[in-house]
Amino acid sequence: MSKNLVIVESPAKAKTIQKYLGKDFEVKSSFGHIRDLPKKGMGIDLATFSPDYEVSADKKKLVTELKAAVKKAEMVWLASDEDREGEAIAWHLADELKLKPENRKRIVFHEITKNAILKAIENPRDIDQNLVNAQQARRVLDRIVGFEMSPVLWKKVKPGLSAGRVQSVAVRLIVEREKEIREFVPKASFKLDGIFLNKTEQEISAKLKKDFEKEEDAEKFLEKAKTTEFKVLNVETRPGTRTASAPFTTSTLQQEASSRLGYNVTNTMRLAQRLYEEGYITYMRTDSVNLSQEAIEGAKKQITSEYGAEYSSPRNYTTKSASAQEAHEAIRPTDFAVKSIGDAQLNRLYQLIYRRTLASQMANAKIEKTVIEIGNASLPQHFEAQGEVIIFDGFLKAYGIVKTEDDDEDNNEKLLPKVSVGEILSYKKITASEKFTRPSARYTEAGLVKKLEELGIGRPSTYAPTIQTIQNREYVDKREIDPQTREVVKMSLTNDKIKKEVLEEKFGGDKNKFIPTDIGEVVNDFLTDNFKEILDYGFTARVEESFDEIANGDQKWKEMMTTFYSKFHPRIEDVEENADRANGDRLLGVDPKTGKNVHARIGRFGAMIQIGETEDEEKPIFASLMTGQNIATISLAEALELFKLPFELSAFDGQPVSVGVGRFGPYVKWGETFISIPKGEDPLSVSQARAEEIINEKKKADAPIASYKGDPVTKGTGRFGPFIKYKDLFINVPKKYNFDNLSQDDINELIDAKLEKEANRYIQQWEKEKISIENGRWGPFVKFGKAMFKIPKKKDDTKYEAEELKDVSLDEVKKWITDQDKNAFAEKKKPAAKKPAAKKTTAAKKPAAKKK
């Protein structure tokens, strides 16, 4: 048996490290954290802020295996990542595995190479308690904020919602940007572009240096230009340089992978993790742009051999952020001799990191910029043409140029023909185009990461999970926004004639950008109104600074928690007691048919329109909003249109037909079958003929494609991809099958495998009571309705075997359930009749009806 046991947090990392260590070392993985705060309950003593950690159910078997391995080893090396999270993992392992200081060593490395591993073994240290405490402070503070704020949302907004220190601030950024866009009033102006010809008929494209606010001013300029002799008034050529960007940090990698490769933040971090674990790059969670001397020398050698000595310009970068840890390195290749790797997807990200690091060590690009001024003394404004020539490509040789969405789309710098001052030019065409100002762009994932970093909110390890969380909670999404249309004026001067046109222009469309949902806006408004400090960008950044101070040993984490909680908890109690309920209610106007108020608000199932008041004698009527509609922007006319749904059409094939809108969008209902109306199609425009067409398409799609043991098999595509359906079973079709051409053998194979899996799923089942004992991924468990419960140990403290569970009685299983949830079988009380609430008086609302 090996004398040394090395524990890392990832199996891929374990596999790579094992290659570099001899037979005296055994490398095992903890698969991340082995213990954490409990999933149910807060798990924190609020008097002392001591966390009550527990080993998660899925890690108990692993912990037992690690304890057995520890007993056989003389020395345990804790080799989790070098950040706070990694330090906490090492601390939890040491504590749970009962490792004594003399039998454990902590080692860290920012790259998984043989030299780095051996060097770490030669320079071990003990666990850094300051780093552990910084991670504990983050975990505990975020748990308290989430656990105390979320129930307030359940009570004041809607059950099932959640709040979080960083996620709520990220949502606030997106909501505020959306409100800014809604309130933006575009201003029109006329921009003039000219194409001029020199004596050799070469074209020069130029722009007028000033825009005109009014159409008549632009037209006057064109009239004057008809008879103007255009000359070259000035030619200026000046040298310039372009400088390479610093090597990648976590944030800049996420931004660049988005703009260059189209990767989202989560995908970028997943691929970077694999590159790190397989030894290709240094640690991928870093806010430092620093490079080691060894890396600078390696880059220099590669640049000199590949491009030549004139391209090499070694330099080190310093991080502007005060909280960045310069002891860490930027993200870079571990070996510059490795120019590409086999896996195509990994290689795309590796190439980006490789080229960015090389470029950072290369010479500046030298350019020559030429500016030509064109006009006449009689004209109030002159045209300007800009061109650029690269004299020496420098770092561009490795990295190239990428255009960002912030760049001016018209700023296409190009090579200009040779001209001299005083030279006469003729115009080929001068165009005056009406252009409108645009609001700030919605956030992309990369843009949101950049903004969070600028504000000092979160750290490299938090960006990806934060962005994932706010989407999972359905506070924001990336739905496509259809563009609107407006008229624009375009005037063209050609051959001394002015042609005026009125054209249509699309604007305001967007896709793959963050847009707040209705519930996201309501939750944000409630939190910003009632928890201003928690949602304050400065406060969130100061909390991050406190974590940094704890990590440096300059602050005690429990003192920080005491200060925070002494202000936070009273605010929670005050809001819970005194704040009004929030549902985003917006009074749209009055329904002309009934004379009742029309409201847009959040209801039990999401955004809806309500005609009438809840306290009226006659109950209000409701309609769901359609995809793309929003309670903050919907008009009265659009809202009233929704009440035309559902509507009945004539029966088809003996089954009634209707059109409506539900939780999953517009549909045609045929008998008991709901058929989605294609995206972008207005349900109010669906005629009898169109409904029958949609039904026939569904019938065709649902027609049996085969049979299995005499019963039909159909196929379709759902939320989780392509599937086949046999009886009541939905069976996913993996990519290895040709879904468009499934053979009978394929179908038999898929159904056989599913039936075998289902047969092994239930150990016991009581259908009437909706209770079952099932086999799960991590062992058997009890299921009651949709809830899952653990199976307790037997009296002798051993686990039940599957065979033994076949003989357990229903009463015993019910006892297991009630031990974990006392109210599981309690009869649900009918809600008491609500007293009519006193209506708030607003100028727009009609007065409340008098009580009888």
From TrEMBL:
It catalyses: ATP-independent breakage of single-stranded DNA, followed by passage and rejoining. Monomer. Residues 128-572 form the Topo IA-type catalytic domain. GO terms for biological process: DNA topological change. Its EC number is 5.6.2.1. GO terms for molecular function: DNA binding; DNA topoisomerase type I (single strand cut, ATP-independent) activity; metal ion binding. The gene is topA. PROSITE patterns: TOPO_IA_1, TOPO_IA_2, TOPRIM. It comes from Chryseobacterium oleae. Keywords: DNA-binding, Isomerase, Magnesium, Metal-binding, Topoisomerase. This is DNA topoisomerase 1.
